[in-house]
């Protein structure tokens, strides 16, 4: 998204991982292992052996340091998520603060299924304030 910031008024992270140039995917992954339900389908490659940090995650993250934060960011906390606990989501926010934080009470990790009307209202409010 940092490649074309003029085309993206705001990025919304909904109960999602939110890395940054000084907040690496490896750091997030290590914390995720402690916070995420272990049954989730996590694919990690350990080229240097299982006793060393992972070398590859499912997604390749490319963050352009010089343009990082050129797109405003909003994080929506799914309060009752069992996939990413509220505490884990708060930890990510504290370590890589977005421009704004919203919470949807009573929502599980699939907010669009558990609280669709509240999600719609929140997304509309965000869109109207950044466009």
Automatic annotation (TrEMBL):
Gene Ontology terms describing biological process: jasmonic acid metabolic process; salicylic acid metabolic process
GO MF terms held by the record: methyl indole-3-acetate esterase activity; methyl jasmonate esterase activity; methyl salicylate esterase activity
Superkingdom as given in the UniProt entry: Eukaryota
SUPFAM superfamilies linked: alpha/beta-Hydrolases
InterPro entries from the UniProt entry: AB_hydrolase_fold, MES/HNL
Protein's recorded name: Salicylic acid-binding protein 2-like
Taxon lineage: Eukaryota, Viridiplantae, Streptophyta, Embryophyta, Tracheophyta
């Amino acid at each position: 998204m940092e490649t074309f910031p003029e085309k993206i008024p705001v990025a919304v992270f909904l109960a999602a991982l939110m890395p940054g140039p000084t907040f690496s995917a490896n750091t997030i992954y290590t914390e995720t292992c402690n916070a995420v339900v272990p049954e989730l389908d996590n694919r990690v490659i350990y080229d240097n052996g299982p006793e060393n940090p992972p070398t590859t995650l499912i997604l390749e993250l490319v963050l352009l340091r010089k343009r990082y934060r050129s797109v405003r960011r909003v994080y929506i906390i799914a309060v009752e998520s069992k996939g990413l606990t509220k505490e884990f989501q708060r930890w990510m926010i504290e370590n890589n603060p977005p421009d704004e934080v919203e919470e949807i009470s009573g929502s599980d990790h699939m907010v669009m299924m558990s609280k669709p009307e509240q999600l719609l209202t929140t997304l509309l409010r965000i869109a109207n304030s950044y466009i």
